[in-house]
Amino acid sequence: MDESLLLSNGDGLDYGNKKPFLASSMKFALKFTMWVIFIAWASIIFLYPSEFVYGLYQKFIQATTGTVYGITGPVFLAFSAPILVIAFLAIAYLIISGEEQFKGKETSKRPCFQLWTLPVIVDGPFGVVSAAELIGIVLFSVYIIWAVYAYTVKNLDILSKFQLTFEEKSYLLLELTGLRFGLIGLFCLAFLFLPVARGSVLLRLIDIPFEHATRYHVWLGHLTMLIFTLHGLFYIVAWAMQGRLLREILEWKNIGVANLAGVISLAAGLFMWVTSLPPVRKQNFELFFYTHQLYIVFVLFLALHVGDFIFSIAAGGIFLFILDRFLRFCQSRRTVNVISATCLPCGTVELVVSKPANLKYNALSFIFLQVRELSWLQWHPFSVSSSPLDGKYHVSILFKVLGEWTAKLRENILNGPKEDPQIEQQPLQPHSNLSVSVEGPYGHESPYHLMKPCLPRNVLVVWAVKKSDELPLLHSFDMKSICPFFSDLMNLEIQTYVTRESEPPLEEGNISQSVSSFGCPVGNRCGISVLVYYINPFSISSWWYKGLLLFACMVVSPIIFGGVVVGLWHIWERKTSAREVYEDDDEQKIDILPGNEPRASKESSQDYVATSNTIRYGRRPDFGEIFGCKAEQWGHVDVGVIVCGPPTLQTSVAKECRSQSLKRKCNHPIFHFHSHSFDL
For the FAD-binding FR-type domain, which residue ranges apply (predicted)? Predict the structure, then answer.
């Protein structure tokens, strides 16, 4: 039972083969180089407030300002170039890694703790926080405290060098403090856009899925806007005390900081910040969504406010986000066919859409869906309910009607064309009321959350629903499609809890029929489908104008150079699709030869699931009992726990994982917590 299931050669999935020495050496060299660059970059930012590092930085500026790039070049090279170089090296690293999704390293059979899966804080403003996340929070907190302290000492030292009155010192201290907070905010902004790039190679490199990285963007967003707000408040108080508030706010300097542009940028940021707070966001998601598009105004006027060389501090992360946004825009322009849509009596909707064969996804991947009849701007995330091993040309999702957008989508499906049950094998056509675009998929690079080259033999699914009308969803559970190579080798157990019914209804056992469905044939396959250097040869001196040019270069360069790459990619994709169609036709000819055994029927796998399912009414899952029972039953192994649900459920499961792992006996397992949340 402890042996790896996927490392055997009998199933054709030989994930245990070692990589060639040259590839392994190149991967090691790239990883080592990326770590060195990242540590050096983070160290410069962290130690920048110190006299020693700031002195070295000034010497570097003086030695390199004689080039055509002026002061912008060295600032960009010090603070933005490192993250771009890491992203470039990450692409090479991922290409060399290829399709090696299961990490091919040797892993110990003894269970061990992992920083990313050990919940440390389970109840608080940050939600469930792992040990690795806590380290990151502590490092950022230490940096903020250290930077404020160091800059306060510098400010007091500057004041001591001038013979000023107490009132004049107060004005100057307020303005200097506001200036320092602005610089700290720029360093935080350098990290803010990195987690929100959905297809970022940096996230793929460290195997953090986008839905997890989004919470880091939220944390950094609160921190950045708090610091920028303090930056503005210190200046406003100082100007108001001096009686020149209105004149300073409306000032737009050519040489120096343009105050009015900063006011506009801060106002846009405050609108985004306030509407992103949980009470506002939950009550009116559309308000949050549309006001968050003000990030364009926020970034543009920030560049106008500080000029090109100061904006270069945060330009690297912003450029990677712009590049990601351009690529996502190119991918999402095409519409896909709706193969089928089904509205179940419990309120759940199943949508099956087409995809190209070369689009790969893993278990627990998710996609963003746009329905143009509902909105041209809104994209909503949904987890993928189909197995990546079940079919090459479709992907399916299941979702409940919980908001205005999903309610409109369900109504659109109900008002669409219906299937006639009296006509057998009627040709189905795409639903004319739906124009669907898909972006993604996103999620873990590794198919299994334990990050080890093996498939667990024992799987326990604990599913809690409110009413029994949701139980028919399990009838779509097909073990043969999920694990076609080894479904008979897995020990699958399902525990279902119906929390708001004390006993099964009289019609228990009957499968509820869908009330509406439509579709189109699967065979109709329709696809989802260098930063420009800023040179100043014209003696332009206006800070705001040079900031505008830098921002324009960051936007235009992905469109020009990325457009060429995307065009070549589409040409290659069409050739690949044509070749796959030819290969699939050959496979279909082979399948009809005499002697070929048919696949196992779906009904047989459903019978297997039914015998492994226990339904309990009128109670909620007792995680202490469940974890304790499995700890005794499974023994000294690693157990991955994947939870999807509201924050209260995640907190309860995380507490139990932490308690069981820290207080375990020597022969008990270590539980690794994984949250699968879509609160985006």
Answer: 331-448
3-class SS at 342? strand
Spatial neighbors of 545 by CB under 8 A, at least 6 apart, are: 254
- What's the pLDDT at 349? 86
426: pLDDT strictly greater than 60: no
Q: What is the pLDDT of residues 477-517, one digit of tens each?
A: 666 666 666 666 677 888 899 988 888 876 554 444 444 44
Per residue in 346-375, pLDDT (tens digit) is 778 888 888 876 677 877 788 888 888 888
pLDDT at 5: 43
Cα→Cα distances 117→125, 204, 663, Å: 19, 18, 16
Total residues belonging to the chain? 680
Please write the tens of the pLDDT for every residue from 316-331. 999 999 988 888 888 7
- Whether the pLDDT of residue 421 is over 50: the answer is no
At residue 64's C-alpha, the angle toward residues 58 and 70, to 5°, is 100
Residue 133 reports pLDDT greater than 50: yes
421: cis peptide before it, omega within 30°?
no
**Sequence-separated (6 or more) residues with CB below 8 Å from residue 194:** 83, 200, 202, 317, 320, 321
| Pick from 457, 492, 499: nearest CA to 477 | 492
Report DSSP state, residue 10.
Answer: T
Count CA atoms closer than 13 A to 354's CA, side-chain side: 21
**Between the CA of residue 326 and those of 72, 148, 242, 410, 440, what are the distances in Å?**
25, 37, 46, 31, 14
Q: Is the dihedral of CA 222, 223, 227, 233 positive or negative?
A: positive
At position 572, the amino acid (one-letter code) is W
Of 405, 359, 366, the residue nearest 385 (C-alpha): 366
Distance (Å, rounded) from C-alpha 171 to C-alpha 150?
A: 20
Question: Amino acid identity, residue 393?
Answer: Y
Q: How far is C-alpha 190 from the geometric centre of its chain's CA atoms?
A: 18
- 95 contacts 638 by C-beta, under 8 angstroms: no
Q: How does pLDDT run across 393-418, given as a tens digit for each residue?
A: 888 888 888 778 888 888 888 876 65
Give the chain's mean pLDDT.
79
Rounded to a whole number of angstroms, the distance between the first and last alpha carbons of the chain is 38
Beta bridge partners of 147: none
**Sequence-distant (≥ 6) Cβ neighbours of residue 56 within 8 angstroms:** none
CB contact at 8 A, 465 and 496: yes
* Strand spans (E) along 70-177: 119-121, 129-130
Domains in the chain, please, with CATH? Answer: 26-330 (no CATH), 335-416+429-447 (2.40.30.10)
Lookup result for tokens 């912003």: 318
What pLDDT is stored for residue 596 in this prediction?
40
Token couple for 531: 């930063």
Q: Given the structure tokens 């890491």, which residue do they identify?
A: 86
CA 142 to chain centre: 26
Residues 129 and 658 sit within 8 Å (Cβ to Cβ): no
Per-residue H/E/C for 470-514: HHHHHHHCCHHHHCCCCHHHCEEEEEEEECCCCCCCCCCCCCCCC
